[in-house]
């Protein structure tokens, strides 16, 4: 089964309120919302909008997504993590998505790797004290850009508060089989990011400078089952009997239409699988 969320970041360039998004999510058969921390901060002046309010609509916040610093003074990063833990509690979630720095694993020196591990362990200790789990996203140009690097990082940090948000497309981008990657990392995977691309040549569209820009190219972004990565195969390869938490991470145009269509196709895929079981 799939516990499916939309990402509020999909609506970063549109004037859409959270109540509107929640109403849409509930009507589209989604289970929750992945809340971008920038949006959570913007909602501080509306304290009645919180996790209890969402749960009354039959929804939950699957995770809070943000970015922690891996350079500079430790107290600065700890303060940001404290803020994120406070926001997460307000929204009744215990999961905070982070990245493993800003340098590809193959480019990390021994000193870089040691610094990354030490900073992550420090964050994990503090997250655990707050009752939170940090989900490390598999992403290009970070220390978790491949299955091997992600596994090595998890082993080096060696802390129960560190888990994985497996971005399926980015693992495929690294030249790996996403199904094999999932099987390798499965004990630590607590969330999936689902998105697709028309062809490998368009993968740079997901680079931060482009994807966060209102004027960035979206030419290669396509619905989940229309791209180069075979998501039907991936989703059908996930084991039955386990609830998989995932977000439709759509960055292209017409998010309401695309997210609704993708969620319905995932539901049909699951229904067909159950019927043939």
TrEMBL record:
<dbReference type="InterPro" id="IPR050312">
    <property type="entry name" value="IolE/XylAMocC-like"/>
</dbReference>
<feature type="domain" description="Xylose isomerase-like TIM barrel">
    <location>
        <begin position="24"/>
        <end position="268"/>
    </location>
</feature>
<protein>
    <submittedName>
        <fullName>3-dehydroshikimate dehydratase</fullName>
    </submittedName>
</protein>
<dbReference type="Pfam" id="PF01261">
    <property type="entry name" value="AP_endonuc_2"/>
</dbReference>
<dbReference type="InterPro" id="IPR013022">
    <property type="entry name" value="Xyl_isomerase-like_TIM-brl"/>
</dbReference>
<dbReference type="InterPro" id="IPR036237">
    <property type="entry name" value="Xyl_isomerase-like_sf"/>
</dbReference>
